[in-house]
Amino acid sequence: MTAKKFPKVPKEAIVRSEDEKPAKIELRPEEVESKDEVEQKKLHSVNHDMDGDGSPDT
Questions:
Q1: Are the C-beta atoms of residues 42 and 50 closer than 8 Å to each other?
Q2: 3-state SS string over 8-53?
């Protein structure tokens, strides 16, 4: 059995690992929610059950 010959691959078609790295993303301070803001949203969520009766509190 002879090895199968494959066609030449152009250099542009080869993806190198450094090409796949994600672009740097900068978050401005106003775009980052604080832990308090996230917790506050959870507390005001319709799905939040404060008294543990299994139904959402409004």
A1: no
A2: CCCHHHCCCHHHCCCCCCCCCHHHCCCHHHHHHHHHCCCCCCCCCC
Burial 37-47 (b: 16+ CB within 10 A, else e): eeeeeeeeeee
pLDDT on residue 31: 62
Name 57's Cβ contacts closer than 8 Å, sequence gap at least 6: 48, 49, 50, 51
Tell me the whole-structure pTM to 2 decimals: 0.23
- Amino acid code (one letter) for 6: F
Burial class (CB in 10 A: 0-12, 13-18, 19+), 10: exposed
